[in-house]
Amino acid sequence: MPIEIIGSLLTNRGSEISPGGPLVDRPFLRRFAQASEAADFDRVLVTLTSVIPDPLPVTVYAAAHTERLGFLIAHRPGFVQPTVTARQFATLDELTGGRVALHAISGGIEAEQRRDGDYLDKSSRYQRTGEYLRILKRAWTATDPFDHDGRFYRIRAAAPTRPYQQPRIPIYFAGSSPQAYQVGGAEADVHAFFGQPLDQIAEEIRHVRAGAQAAGRVEGPRVSVSFRVILGATEEVAWERARQILAVTRQRLAQFGAPKELDGQPAEQPAVGFQRQLRAAERGEHHGRALWTALATATGYGGNKIALVGTPDTVAGELARYVDLGVSTVLLSGFELYDDTVTFGRELIPLLRQEVAHRDRRRLAGGHAPLGAATVGGAGWRSTTS
């Protein structure tokens, strides 16, 4: 089973260490999307918060300047009726020739939800997400109009909305709480987690597989893990760069006075996914050969902050260990967004694909099937879900 490699697509060059410039820098966005395609990413995540540009038109613009690159579009269930979302995504899927996937985010920060008028509690948000995703899947696969009566939605004679991809558009989902394991296990094609040490990801996989079994699924969702990546020609160069990134991040935090000034997220109780990153940091700054938690400790407030640091060989080898656990998808992002994307395509992604293919051949030669569930949503995969 080939590994799926996802990047991040942002509308300007801003990061923990770089000012962003214009909120939408069209020349940068075009070059960034084209660089991601040239680097051989399968998809890029088009991110979403209440203070950044809407990901749907961003995707339209980026898709118009690329040919093969896929787009994983972040989406918050509950702000648009699910049948409307089904049409929006199906239309974009047709226009791009099947390059669209949906990444459902239920929301882990109360202030973020309330900026857009959502006052449901966390448990209710997850319940709403589950119902929302069931309606989406039905809209994308139905052959006749259908009705729906649920806790959050009541629909009459909804028209089927068949996308370019068959049987339907892939659904990715993120979350590390008990409610998230239930929803992702039941409804998602891919369940995404922030980067953590191997043992913590193994625990996450057990939970989401239990959620899938409770929902009666023969095969649960595939698993994605996200990391920041810091590469160097030698281990010493990579770690020196990591220390420089940490120093600049701390300087910017001190300058702006609050973490929210970096990415729009308020400083409050972190979501469970980030709490797990902080738990890893409490266990130590270094795990294995390459995993580094210092950025999570320094920021302390959320997002994808655990990094893999080292030479391309080292980082590819560490990522392959996650594949051995059952991870089929990795999301990799850097700090100098454009330059790191080019470097990943030249030095890391080919090595990672080769290493995973080599391990698959060894497992097959030993009579063992590759790890991971086969579901909607990646190169070489076929649907086992409706």
TL;DR of this structure?
Helix content is 46%, strand content 17%. With 386 residues, the protein is α/β, with parallel strands linked by helices. Strand 10 and strand 11 (291-292) form a beta hairpin.
Counted by DSSP, the helix tally is: 13
Strand order in the largest sheet? 1-2-3-4-7-8-9-13
> Can you identify the CATH superfamily?
Luciferase-like domain
Count the strands? 13
Percent of sequence in beta strands: 15-25%
Topology as a string of helices (H) and strands (E): EHEHEHEHHEEEHEHEHHHEEHEHEH
Number of domains in the coordinates?
1
The gross shape turns out to be: globular
Average per-residue pLDDT, rounded, comes to: 90
Q: What Rg is obtained from the alpha carbons, in whole angstroms? A: 20 Å
Residue windows where pLDDT falls under 50 for at least 5 positions:
259-267, 369-386
CATH class: Alpha Beta
What is the CATH topology classification name?
A: TIM Barrel
- Relative helix content: 40-55%
Structural class determined from secondary elements: alpha/beta
End-to-end CA span:
21 Å
Architecture per CATH nomenclature, i.e. the level-2 architecture:
Alpha-Beta Barrel
Biggest sheet architecture: 8 strands, parallel, barrel
